[in-house]
Design goal:
31% of the residues lie in helices and 19% in strands. With 209 residues, the chain is an alpha/beta fold. The N terminus is likely disordered. The structure holds guanosine-5'-diphosphate.
């Protein structure tokens, strides 16, 4: 890596893995013609609106606002591509926001169908759910998309800083149950604010791309 560069900020080139300092926004794709097909490895991030998907991506990249945080949920049905040390981070559009129109819901469904039905658009997935709650029907649908794609994916249970210690195990069990994850399926406790799980998630990504 480039960790030896003078004045390089901390957090890059960790242990010879992915250099999360090397980040570049590439493009937003609003239809399937615009998806990138250049053969790079790609990590697809999915999650319902407000689950903290932007925050998780930002925490991985040690940035505050690389992926936009708190933009009007559901307003943009598009797939955002970032280049991170030679691999794409793909920010899939959030789902499940109550106040979006039927039109937007249909656009989301159509775009996701297009994305997941085409092989080789991504290498692995990261499905972000809220550690406090049972996964929603939309979360289950998204897990099925990833299972059907036949790519490895990891489920990230975000906002664990909001849990009492006694809630952690039962809540993780409920997530496994509802999403149909085996006991050995990768499920990571995560907190962007308390910085829990970042190393494990980066490790999973590095091992699967
Ligand atoms: P997105 O719509 O899924 O991209 O969600 P955002 O990243 O915009 O986050 C939604 C809200 O949840 C924001 O107010 C974040 O500050 C907050 N948030 C995100 N991650 C965490 C976390 O790990 N813990 C807590 N307590 N709040 C979080």
């Amino acid at each position: 890596g480039s960790g030896a560069e003078k004045g390089a900020p901390p957090g890059g080139g960790e242990g010879g893995g992915m250099n999360t300092q090397k980040v570049e926004f590439i493009k937003s794709a609003a239809n399937k013609k615009a998806f990138l097909r250049d053969g790079r490895h790609a990590v697809a991030f999915a999650g319902r609106s407000n689950v903290g998907k932007s925050s998780v991506i930002n925490s991985l990249l040690n940035r505050k606002n690389y992926a936009r945080v708190g933009a009007t949920p559901g307003k943009t049905v598009q797939v955002n591509y970032f280049l991170v040390d030679g691999a794409y981070f793909i920010d899939l559009p959030g789902y499940g926001y109550a106040r979006v129109s039927g039109d937007e819901r249909r656009r989301w469904g159509a775009l996701m169908e297009d994305f997941f039905q085409e092989p080789n658009l991504f290498t692995m997935g990261v499905l972000i759910v809220d550690s406090r709650h049972a996964p929603t029907a939309d979360d289950v649908t998204m897990a099925e998309y990833f299972f059907d794609a036949g790519r490895p994916f990891v489920v990230v249970a975000n906002k664990c800083d909001k849990l009492k210690k006694s809630e952690i195990e039962p809540n993780l069990e409920r997530i496994r149950d509802v999403l149909g994850l085996d006991d050995d399926f990768p499920l990571l406790l995560y907190s962007c604010t308390a910085k829990v799980g970042r190393r494990e998630l980066l490790g999973f990504i590095e091992n699967n791309i």
